[in-house]
């Protein structure tokens, strides 16, 4: 029986049928693979002209929508950046203005060039009116920040005689020697104090001495406490 079945004996007709079946299977496999990999291309290739025009219009419309959305996002980004920069710039300017007003009001410390004026009065002849006159001369010459000993001097600071060699400045007793720390243009301040009949000569006539020293870097560190108004309020809504 084994000898009858093996080796198999194929007739010519069977061999031809087998080759045809193999060729048909190979062709189907190639067609299925081609269909799967190039499905989109095959659909476009087989589409009608009207369908191709419609698809092209849809692609163009989608591209225009994306372009419009891109432009809107760019405009939004630019607006946000400008707003952020404007807000930041406004904040910087506000802080700078606050610092400037604080220097004038005496609520913040100040640094810069200027002069140091030292008045030594062992005889107690220099009184409140002389110190006030000295302050006015300095202000007229462009003084921006002034400190006498450890007292910050501002627009509403007052002077009063206490005892010989002691003057009350803004309610605080200040003893001689009186040291003025003044921030401003050193040349202008020095010139104002040394003009004929000015502060230096006036102090000399009282048997006291006034010495002026130019400084490239000074610090006015005494501060005025920030007071809250009891009755006045901002007029802005």
Summarize the structure.
With 237 residues, the chain is α+β, with helices and mostly antiparallel strands. It has two domains: 48-105; 109-220, Protein of unknown function DUF881 (Alpha-Beta Plaits, 2-Layer Sandwich), CATH 3.30.70.1880.
Counting DSSP E segments of at least 2 residues, the number of strands comes to 8
Helix content: 40-55%
Low-pLDDT regions: 1-7, 14-24
CATH architectural group of the largest domain: 2-Layer Sandwich
What is the succession of H and E elements?
HHHHEHEEEEEEHHE
Q: For the terminal residues, how far apart are their CA atoms?
A: 116 Å
Number of helices: 7
Q: In the CATH hierarchy, what is the class of the largest domain?
A: Alpha Beta
Rg, Å, rounded: 48 Å
Percent of sequence in beta strands = 15-25%
Specify the overall morphology.
Answer: rod-shaped
Number of domains: 2
Would you give an account of this structure?
The protein is an alpha+beta fold and 237 residues long. It has two domains: 48-105; 109-220, Protein of unknown function DUF881 (Alpha-Beta Plaits). It contains seven helices and eight strands. Strands 3-2-7-1-8 form a five-stranded antiparallel beta sheet. Strands 4-5-6 form a three-stranded antiparallel beta sheet, with helices on one face. A hairpin with a 2-residue loop joins strand 2 and strand 3 (151-153).
What features would you highlight for this structure?
3-stranded antiparallel beta sheet; single chain; Alpha-Beta Plaits; 237 residues; 21% strand; alpha+beta; 5-stranded antiparallel beta sheet
Task: Lay out the secondary structure.
Blueprint: H1 2-5, H2 12-37, H3 39-46, H4 49-105, E1 110-120, H5 128-140, E2 145-148, E3 151-153, E4 159-163, E5 166-169, E6 172-175, E7 178-183, H6 186-194, H7 199-205, E8 209-220
Antiparallel strand pairs: 1-7, 1-8, 2-3, 2-7, 4-5, 5-6
């Amino acid at each position: 029986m084994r000898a009858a079945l093996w080796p198999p004996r194929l007739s010519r007709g069977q061999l031809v049928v087998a080759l045809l079946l193999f060729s048909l299977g190979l062709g189907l496999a190639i067609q299925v693979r081609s269909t799967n990999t190039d499905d989109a291309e095959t659909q476009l290739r087989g589409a009608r002209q009207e369908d191709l025009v419609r698809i092209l219009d849809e692609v163009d419309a989608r591209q225009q929508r994306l372009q419009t959305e891109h432009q809107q996002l760019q405009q939004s980004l630019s607006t946000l950046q400008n707003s952020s920069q404007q807000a930041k710039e406004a904040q910087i300017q506000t802080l700078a203005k606050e610092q400037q007003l604080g220097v004038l009001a005496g609520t913040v410390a100040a640094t810069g060039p200027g002069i140091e004026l030292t008045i030594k009065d062992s005889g107690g002849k220099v009184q409140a009116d002389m110190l006030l006159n000295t302050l006015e001369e300095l202000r007229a010459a462009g003084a921006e920040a002034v400190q006498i000993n450890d007292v910050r001097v501002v627009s509403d600071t007052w002077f009063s005689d206490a005892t010989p060699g002691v003057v009350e400045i803004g309610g605080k007793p200040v003893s001689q020697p009186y040291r003025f720390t003044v921030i401003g243009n050193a040349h202008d301040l020095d010139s104002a104090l040394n003009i004929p009949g000015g502060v230096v000569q006036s102090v000399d006539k009282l048997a006291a001495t006034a010495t002026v020293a130019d400084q490239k870097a000074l610090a006015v560190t005494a501060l005025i406490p920030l007071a809250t108004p009891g009755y006045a309020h901002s007029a802005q809504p």
